[in-house]
Input
Amino acid sequence: MEQPQGKLIAIGGNEDKGSEHEPNSEQKNNINFFELQILSRILHEIRGHKDSTVEVITTASSIPEEVGEAYIVAFKKLGNEHVQLMHIKNREDAKNPEYIDRIAKCDGVMFTGGNQMRLSTIFGGTEILNILHKRYFMEDFLIAGTSAGAMAMPNTMIYQGSSSGALLKGEVKITTGLAFIKNVIIDSHFDKRGRFGRVAQAVAANPSCIGIGLGEDTGVLITEGRFLEIIGSTLVTIVDGHEIQHSNIADLQDGSPISIENLKVHILTKGNCYDLVNRTFLKEPSLVKH
Output
């Protein structure tokens, strides 16, 4: 497996106004940045720190201007004056030579929350996505994303599924994401929206994947395409299906309840680590063997 030189930071979100919400879930409906600590870590991981140029890509959001301005304010609080916004709203925008040039020159990118299908349908097959892949694999380059921006990072992406029916076959919909990392499935707002069932079904249907459930104001720093370090204030849930012994998901009619035997679950908090290749829980970063 090709080892990327860059890093990913996937954040669980905090219910900003630009996100797509599932029916009947309680909404705060405001923009605030509990994850300032995480944004600070993003700057720390980008070379040049406070002088780094960060491109905030608002494609997923239904209110890109408002969300983008909130990120400018948040990064400015942390001392970074070099944040730029890309309001790429369709595939034609994604072909804009100015945006392509900026992606080729920036120090890191941040995908905002919203609807992850906007990211996969607008960026799939574009020069911008090709450049991001190349830079992530060949350079010390950072790609961050919150909520939908985090969910779109893997090659396998959840794009739909209510929490209440998540353990009924067919309720969780999967498609192809931006493919910065293989063999993982990322879900956001994991604890607040009760999304364990979504990840359990997704992993049962794709047992080669590790499920990563991100709590709000919490994220994972992924290095070498395999080592996860937990950052932020709450929890990350790892769902490992490699040792599933029985699952009836292949034989069921849509709408039928799923049974799964021997699904392995780990709960991680700030400072804990996880090795995606060896599928091992590590208490702290010093235990990561490079």
